[in-house]
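2024-03-11 09:14:02 DEBUG pipeline.ingest accepted 1 chain
2024-03-11 09:14:02 DEBUG pipeline.ingest length=287
2024-03-11 09:14:03 DEBUG pipeline.predict start
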Amino acid sequence: MEKVLKPMSGYLALVFCLILFAGAVYFFISGVEQSITYVILAMLCFLLFCFFLKGLMIIQPNHSRVLNFFGKYVGTVKDNGLFFINPLYSSQKMSLRSENLQGQTLKVNDKMGNPIEIGVVMVWKVGDTYKAAFDVERYSDFVKMQSEAAVRHLAMSFPYDNLEDDHAPITLREGGDKINSILEQELTDRLSKAGIIIQEARISHLAYASEIAGAMLQRQQATAIVAARTKIVEGAVGMVDLALKKLSEENIVELDDERKAAMVSNLMVVLCGEKAAQPILNAGTLY
């Protein structure tokens, strides 16, 4: 478990290091002119200077240091500034800044078995430095691999659209925020063991694979045409019924069944035709 440390300020230790360095220079110069004892003192001051200097560390904003003492985890320093720690500690730098990951476009099969291309973009950062440093090997590579696995699992769990599955409650193409929420939860579950926090995840690319894209486009167009024709016919039937009722209620003209059938046929042709109808004047009678 992560343990946050509050080390002592490093400014006093920095002054002490400068004093040791100045003493080393002074004793070395004096030892050359007077005695070997000063040279020994100069070497001792210089060794102490190097030892205490190793304990100084500078932490930039949104960065941290994971500290170890001979293989044992000591804690993590998340404050920024100049600090002094035990010189025998080993430290590992770790960024706490948010990072973008533009995943590569993957070719997978959706729930219905259709090959599709899908890609995501996600924003993540390190939340638990202990898990990121010790529970996984190279947490950045772990993020990349697990994000691809999450995207593949998402694509295989839902159909691309509802052309083949009319009763699908959620599809990849129309899922929107719901699909993105499921993706974020999937990534969070997979990456929590590495101490990674998922801030945002969105599908950045979604399309049928090239080998079936043309056929699927034709299918979508045909479905759209059928749906449009259905609406047109429903509207035309309503208009014809309204016209016949108006003619009958206002006694404009008396129509027998044969004339009604002819009128319905003509109106349906006019209302449902793709092109404008060409009027034909009948100077005679229907019979």
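2024-03-11 09:14:41 DEBUG pipeline.report The CA atoms of residues 90 and 249 lie 97 Å apart.
2024-03-11 09:14:41 DEBUG pipeline.predict end
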